[in-house]
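Researcher: Re-running this chain for the archive, since the previous output was lost when a drive failed. Same request as before.
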Amino acid sequence: MKSIGILGAGHIGGAIAMRLGAKGIAATIANSRGPETLADLVAKAGPSITAGTREEAASKDIVFLAINWAKIEGALTGLPPWNGRIVIDTNNPMQPPPLPAYDIGGRASTAVVQAWAKGARVVKAFNHHYYVNLEKEPDAEGGRRVLFFAGDDAHAKADVAALIDQLGFHGIDMGDVERGSRTFQTPDGPLIAFDLVRFG
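Model: Regenerated structure tokens:
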């Protein structure tokens, strides 16, 4: 099984840790303040979740990137080469309300993350839900909550799709970064913030 790291322990990173922990899936989570500040979170998430350094979390086969947009580039600076490992981009280029979105020159935000995480295979996912929906059980009213994903590497997307399924969500492949990821990129993506459920 592929090893998993989480960079960022805010609402999204914490929710992902909770979902992984609920399934007993091992993961290392890190923040900017140090492992000792994550004791409460890892205790709540369960024994499969451990706190680590930024370097430890970033060394895993699959790394969730769940960091405030303004801090992403800095957080990725100085890490060892990615060498084709998978980065799951859970981010959107948003400032806290009521401030507007960051101006990224009309680019797909995941394309910007790809440029910052050179050598990684980047897949956008886990970003279109409000974090409280990620904290909930994925099964809802007899169905499974939908998670969109998009990326340019078919093998990386297959690995992310398998993880989404293992967590109990229903993944939908939206295509590539340039076109597909924009459909669920905040603030303009038409699929952002919908809590969709697949039945059957």
